[in-house]
Write a structure and sequence with these properties.
By secondary structure, the protein is an alpha/beta fold. It has a single domain, classed as TIM Barrel (Alpha-Beta Barrel). Helices cover about 45% and strands about 10% of the residues. It is built from twelve helices and eight strands. The N and C termini lie far apart (about 45 Å).
C-alpha cells in the first residue's frame, strides 16, 4: 500500500459533459483544463468520480476514462499529488469492482461512501471495508455523508473501522456536526490509530475543523477558487488564523450558494459561467433553475470570477 498523507485542499472535481442530446458524452478536453486549473491553484490532491463528479451516472468505461485522464494530467504536470477515485457503492462486490477499476486506471487512493439505503450495522460496515481493503490494498478514505446515505456513521464506529482496517487512513466527515468531528479527533489522539486524518466534507466548516485538529477538506468550492481555498487551508494549517479567516469570509457566499440546489448543479453552472465547461448534467440531475441563477452570478462577481 502506498504511503500517502491526506491533508490540505482537495477538490472533488466535476465531470464535464457535452451538450449533445441524450448521450451527454464526456468532455475530456474540458476535464483536462479543469484539472490544470486545480493544479495551478496549488491543491494537495484531487478526487475524481465522487458525488460532485456525478459518478453514479458513469458507466464502467467512462469511469476508467475519467480516472485515467486525471491521472495523466497530474503526471504530465510533474506535481507529486495523489489522485483519489470515488469508488463507493452500497453493494460490497460493486465497491470492490470500482476499486479494482480505479487501481487499474492509476489512482493512488480510494474514497468510499458508507453504504447507503441498506443501512448496515457497525459489524457490517467493518466487514465492508475489510473486504475492499483485502481486494485492492490501497489507502482508503471513508466518506460519511448522512444527507446522501440516510445514515450517520457515529465516531466510535469510524474509529473502530480505522483500527480494524489499517488501509482506512482518513475520513471525509460531512455529517455537519463539528462536535462529531471533534469526537473522532479526540478519540484518535488518545487511543489511535496513529496518523488517522479527519477531513471536512463541508467547505464552510473547514476552518473551524482545522482549529480543532482537522487536516483539510475534500471540497466543492475548490472547483471554482482553487487558489483562494488552498491558501485559506495552508494559512490555517500553519496557525495563521487571521489570514485564513479573511479568505474564509471572502468565499463564504460562494460556498453557500453551491448548495442552493443539489450538488453539483450550482457548481456546474458556475464553471459554465466561468468558461470552463458546457452546462450539462445527466438525469436525474437537471440544470439550475432560472430563479437561482442570479445568486450564483452574484457570488461569482463578488470574487471577480466573471
Amino acid at each position: 500500500m502506498k504511503d500517502i498523507k491526506f491533508f490540505g485542499s482537495i477538490p472533488a472535481i466535476i465531470t464535464p459533459f457535452k451538450n449533445n442530446g441524450k448521450e451527454n458524452e464526456l468532455d475530456l478536453p474540458a476535464l483536462e483544463k479543469l484539472v490544470q486549473y486545480q493544479l495551478d491553484g496549488g491543491v494537495d490532491a484531487i478526487v475524481v468520480a465522487g458525488s460532485t463528479g456525478e459518478a453514479a451516472t458513469l458507466n464502467d468505461d467512462e469511469y476508467v476514462t475519467v480516472v485515467e485522464k486525471v491521472v495523466a494530467v497530474v503526471k504530465k504536470s510533474g506535481k507529486k499529488i495523489p489522485v483519489i477515485a470515488g469508488a463507493g457503492s452500497n453493494d460490497t462486490k460493486k465497491a470492490i469492482n470500482f476499486s479494482k477499476l480505479a487501481k487499474s486506471a492509476g489512482a493512488d487512493a480510494l474514497l468510499h461512501v458508507t453504504p447507503y439505503y441498506n443501512k448496515p450495522t457497525p459489524n457490517g460496515l467493518v466487514l465492508h471495508f475489510k473486504e475492499i481493503a483485502k481486494a485492492v490494498d490501497m489507502p482508503i478514505i471513508i466518506y460519511n455523508v448522512p444527507g446522501r446515505t440516510g445514515s450517520n456513521i457515529l465516531p466510535q464506529v469510524i474509529v473502530r473501522i480505522a483500527r480494524e482496517v489499517p488501509e482506512v487512513i482518513a475520513v471525509k466527515e460531512a455529517s455537519g456536526s463539528i462536535n462529531q468531528m471533534a469526537e473522532i479527533i479526540n478519540e484518535v489522539a488518545k487511543n489511535g490509530p496513529k496518523d488517522f486524518v479527519v477531513l471536512s466534507g463541508d467547505d464552510s466548516l473547514t476552518l473551524p475543523l482545522i482549529a480543532l485538529g482537522g487536516k483539510g477538506c475534500i471540497s466543492v468550492v475548490c472547483n471554482e477558487v482553487p487558489k483562494l481555498f488552498s491558501d485559506m487551508i495552508h494559512f490555517a494549517l500553519k496557525g495563521k488564523m487571521v489570514e485564513a479567516e479573511k479568505l474564509h469570509y471572502q468565499m463564504l457566499d460562494l460556498m453557500n450558494v453551491n448548495f442552493i440546489e443539489s450538488n453539483p448543479i450550482p457548481v456546474k453552472f458556475a464553471m459554465f459561467m466561468m468558461g470552463f465547461i458546457e452546462n450539462s448534467l445527466r438525469l436525474p440531475l437537471t440544470p439550475i433553475e432560472e430563479k437561482n441563477k442570479p445568486a450564483v452570478e452574484k457570488a461569482l462577481k463578488q470574487l471577480k470570477l466573471i
